């Protein structure tokens, strides 16, 4: 399940950045394309975000994450590039240990 969480973390981070790019770049340059992309991008990101949170709760006990580590993993999903940091710092270390 850790591999699934790692993939979900990376995909969630990518979807977050794509959603921001849609909001910041495409909206100003091409409003019609922005509205066309908003729903599928938002839905994809929402599903990946919920999956990330659910998987984090499921892995908390099996990975022996303390409260601080678990909180950092959850908060990282709200910050751009946060899930990439988590994947490298916490998940890579745990997978190799």
From TrEMBL:
<feature type="transmembrane region" description="Helical">
    <location>
        <begin position="38"/>
        <end position="58"/>
    </location>
</feature>
<feature type="transmembrane region" description="Helical">
    <location>
        <begin position="7"/>
        <end position="26"/>
    </location>
</feature>
<protein>
    <recommendedName>
        <fullName>DUF3817 domain-containing protein</fullName>
    </recommendedName>
</protein>
<feature type="domain" description="DUF3817">
    <location>
        <begin position="2"/>
        <end position="90"/>
    </location>
</feature>
<dbReference type="InterPro" id="IPR023845">
    <property type="entry name" value="DUF3817_TM"/>
</dbReference>
<dbReference type="Pfam" id="PF12823">
    <property type="entry name" value="DUF3817"/>
</dbReference>
<keyword id="KW-1133">Transmembrane helix</keyword>
<keyword id="KW-0472">Membrane</keyword>
<feature type="transmembrane region" description="Helical">
    <location>
        <begin position="70"/>
        <end position="86"/>
    </location>
</feature>
<dbReference type="GO" id="GO:0005886">
    <property type="term" value="C:plasma membrane"/>
</dbReference>
<keyword id="KW-0812">Transmembrane</keyword>
<keyword id="KW-1003">Cell membrane</keyword>
């Amino acid at each position: 399940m850790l591999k699934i969480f790692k993939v979900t973390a990376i995909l969630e981070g990518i979807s977050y950045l794509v959603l921001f790019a849609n909001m910041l770049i495409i909206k100003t340059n091409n409003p019609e394309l922005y509205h066309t992309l908003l729903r599928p991008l938002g839905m994809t990101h929402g599903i990946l975000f919920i999956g990330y949170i659910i998987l984090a709760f499921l892995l908390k006990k099996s990975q022996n994450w303390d409260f601080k580590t678990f909180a950092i993993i959850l908060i990282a999903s709200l910050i751009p590039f946060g899930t990439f940091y988590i994947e490298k710092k916490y998940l890579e270390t745990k997978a190799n240990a």
